[in-house]
Specification:
Length: 200
């Protein structure tokens, strides 16, 4: 499995590609950061992020894209920029038909370090160890992107199986309700018009 992890951000958007399967050693394929100038117009910054992510997709051909799920922060401006960069990453993947998975920061930290409250230094140290690197990737956004990819490789298949099981259970319940005649169907709207009154 090859996964492109994306740590979204307007100024620095971390990207990292990891190969591997759960239970076996992982391999880093590439890591980097897509940067945009803070004083540039927003639309141009988003275009630059799109072009950067497209270049990574072209070069590495991932099977999945894992993006950090945006969560509420005190700094609304920061979370808006993160959400916009996240949307660009999802758009680039969806346009190519590549499945996208969203993982929360605590989920990624727990997967990589065993603690959902780990700091960036701990995440970087574990990424370095798991991928057998000489030193932690810099800046931290790059290490976070690799951590996202690792998290998806380890947790993605189990998450997908759970979602499939839930969907299958709902389908079976709907079929059972339909067979028992208890499934409610929406009534068709009454399209008949009332007769018009006579005019003088």
């Amino acid at each position: 499995m090859r996964v492109l992890g994306v740590d979204p951000g307007l100024t620095r958007c971390g990207v990292g590609v990891v190969d591997g399967v759960a239970g076996r050693p992982l391999t880093m394929v590439g890591v980097g950061v897509v940067r945009t100038p803070a004083d540039a117009e927003l639309g141009l910054r988003l275009v630059a992020i799109e072009q950067g992510i497209e270049a990574w997709l072209d070069e590495h051909r991932p099977e999945f894209v894992a993006v950090e799920r945006v969560f509420s922060q005190h700094n609304v401006r920061t979370v808006m920029g993160t959400a916009q960069a996240s949307a660009v990453a999802m758009l680039c993947a969806a346009r190519r038909g590549i499945p996208v998975a969203l993982h929360t920061p605590s989920e990624v930290k727990a997967a990589v370090t065993g603690s959902g409250r780990a700091d960036k230094a701990q995440v970087g140290a574990m990424v370095t160890r798991l991928l057998r690197l000489d030193a932690p990737p810099k800046p931290a956004d790059a290490a976070d992107a690799l951590a996202l990819a690792i998290c998806h490789i380890w947790r993605g298949p189990a998450k997908n199986r759970l979602q499939q099981a839930v969907a299958q259970n709902r389908l079976q319940q709907a079929v059972a309700q339909h067979a028992a005649g208890t499934l409610k169907t929406p009534h068709a709207p009454n399209t008949r018009q009332a007769p018009k009154g006579r005019t003088a």
